[in-house]
Write a structure and sequence with these properties.
The structure is a single chain. Strand 4 and strand 5 (127-133) form a beta hairpin. Strands 3-4-5-6 form a 4-stranded antiparallel beta sheet, with no helix packed on it. A two-stranded antiparallel ribbon has the order 1-2. The chain is of the alpha+beta class and 143 residues long. It has one helix spanning 51-75; strands at residues 32-33, 39-40, 108-111, 119-122, 127-133, 136-139.
């Protein structure tokens, strides 16, 4: 056998070493991703998830959306409750109706003259938008 400084030829069908492969020049292109953020090869169709993987991915997506909504909700300013100066516990302001006679009726709940609720608050000057339906207080524009 002859001795030489040259390396022995690679066997047929063997993979070339990493050092022998040419290195790409320039920026590496971004990998494509499917709907769930999984890497997809160039030109390849997205793999179809198994039912268990689909469920896991959907739950993760839902949790991410819920966290984003909770963060948004926490950033919203709560509206300050309106407090009234009358004994009606902060009833909405009177709506522009023709005022009745002050001697005619006192501030109290009366049957709704518009027939859209059981009772409507009369503030002594006119009907307000505060109503009662089935014992529950709500708001409704008179007229």
């Amino acid at each position: 056998m002859l001795q030489s400084d040259e390396p022995a030829p690679a066997p047929v069908g063997a993979m070339p070493s990493a050092a022998a492969q040419p290195q790409p020049s320039g920026p590496v292109p971004a990998q494509e991703r499917d709907l769930y953020g999984r890497a997809v090869g160039p030109g390849a169709a997205a793999p179809i998830p198994t039912p268990a993987e689909f469920d896991r991915l959907e739950r993760a997506s839902h949790e991410q959306q819920a966290r984003a909504y909770e963060a948004w909700l926490a950033a919203q300013r709560p509206a300050a409750p309106r407090l009234g100066a009358d004994p009606h516990h902060g009833a909405p302001a009177r709506v522009g109706l023709a005022p009745g006679s002050a001697q005619q009726a006192r501030q109290d709940w009366y049957p709704d003259p518009f027939r859209r609720a059981d009772l409507r608050w009369f503030d002594g000057r006119g009907w307000t938008s505060s109503v009662m339906r089935g014992g529950l207080r709500g708001t409704d524009q008179p007229g």
